[in-house]
Amino acid sequence: MSLNVGQVLERVVRRDRMGISELSRKLNVSRRTIYNWFDQKSLNPEIIWKVGTVIGHDFSVELPETFSKNSNYIHEAFDAHGEDQAKGDANSVYFWMNKYIKLLEKYNEILSQNNIEKSASETIAHHTMPRNNNRSIS
């Protein structure tokens, strides 16, 4: 029995470490849309290609007939999508979480440096003796 395109897509996606929620965020579609794709007998090659680029999988192995007919289209889309991949990663929850943590750590470091400088200058101002030019120290 041959699997339809949606079933092939589902098997590959479920074997991948990326969950369906993360995949849906990166593709800017709902989880329900992805589940609907799994039920389809045929899918637009662009959808298959986009899923493949997000999860890092080459579907031409499982679906050679789909990608041999549209190979020029797919290669052009792949070249154009190279720059968009980095932008897609910026939408990742982990990307923003890590960015927030780094900024928070930097902010706390600056605050602690300012507090150290402030306390040092207060200590110096408090412990310095006023200079009296009339008296000489022997």
UniProtKB/TrEMBL annotation:
GO terms for molecular function: DNA binding. The keyword DNA-binding applies. Keywords: DNA-binding. It comes from the Bacteria. This is DNA-binding protein. The keyword DNA-binding applies.
